[in-house]
Amino acid sequence: MQHGIVIGHATSTIKHPSFAGWKLAIVQTLGINDQPEADPIIAIDSYNAAAGQKVLVNCDGRAARELIGDVKSPVRWFVCGLIDETN
Hints:
With 87 residues, the chain is mainly beta. Helices cover 9% and strands 36% of the residues. It is built from one helix and five strands, in the order E-E-E-E-H-E. The longest helix is centred in the C-terminal third of the chain and has 8 residues, at 61-68. The two termini are 23 Å apart.
């Protein structure tokens, strides 16, 4: 599990059938001191995270396939939580 920030959303007219109906978030993973780490990823988002919102993402492909209900899906990343930054 990693934390990141949603930097946008992806739309696609041609995609794997298992992605139909799922929101796709573009997430920049963050490292120490909230510095960007690696390239942004695209994650299935069932939480409807807004751009600029911090999230937890997971790269467990098996769990992602269970989430969307298709064992043959190419999905790997998914948003597994929202980070509440209110004090």
